[in-house]
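Hi there,

I know you've been waiting on this one. I reran it after we fixed the sequence typo, so this is the corrected version. Both the input and the resulting structure follow.
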Amino acid sequence: MKMLLKGLGLLVGLPTAAIALFYFWGTSGSGNKQNYAATVNYSAGGLNEGEVVMLDEVSHTIVSYNLGYLSGLANNTTAKTDRDFFEANQRQVIAALKQVKPDIVAFQEIDFDSKRSYGVNQAKAIAQGLDLINGAIAISWDKNYVPFPFWPLSAHFGKILSGQAILSRWPFPIQKNSRVVLEKVASNPFYYNAFYLDRLAQVAEISLYDKTLIVISVHLEAFDEPTRVSQTRFVRSLAEDYAKTYPVIVLGDFNSSPNRAEETEFSIKEMAASEQFVSAVPEADWGKAAATFPSDQPEYKLDYIWYTPSTIEVLKTEVVSAAGEASDHLPLMMNFRLKQY
């Protein structure tokens, strides 16, 4: 009897231990958590001694772009893509953004070292392609196993190190970079959230001579509307707090569009209700002309740029259609001037 009980214990215990070990390995990433909100330098460039810029006479350009890790319309599908596919998309992104000459680019869904994108540090490659000197990264996904797409099973295995990046042409180091993890979907089981990405608000404090600009880049919940509404409220409150002291730009993938039938609360209205922020694309123009998704036939405006009109003057906005299908989103550009404050 004792032997039988031992045998049953092994039959139950060994699979349980194996599942626990697999769970720990799969949800534990390979990245250094101390570098989850790192600032980086992609060039030895810097200011020339005595160089001066009259800020009130200079305009600047910022871009928001959900890069979809350069997977184009194959994002979240089982389509097979090779290294040449990713390299071609990278070249297209660099060529398209060169046309608008960005000073700052805020990327969402950008890979730093992932099997799915052949281990390329996309932030570094694009920064060097666009002469963007300084960067700040925020890791949102660091896993060894992701159970998606559901088939083939072999696609589940392999490192994913991905997240957000704010890249700057300005020759001043980014002073502060914060990675704010937003609330998760409470109704999801713990094991779902354990393998799922963190939704983030990345906050970068960027100096330009005697000015400081706060850039907040977000990638909000895509599938659960109540959580997305709550996240949007939090981001708005966070941004309004910074706006008491600094000019602030909030941008990114808000995953909300006024013409999507599946939305009932339209979380983006939480930002539109702010008295401190204005959309770079006026709400009256949030139609298909300003749509950013999907990139082949844009129908929904999921990507936005918000700014503080008391400290920032907008000169021009544009959906950068030249980026084509390098991502499933299109970039959104804003040309602006900092006011005296």
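Quick highlight: The domain at 33-45+52-338 is CATH 3.60.10.10 (Deoxyribonuclease I; Chain A).

Best,
R. S.
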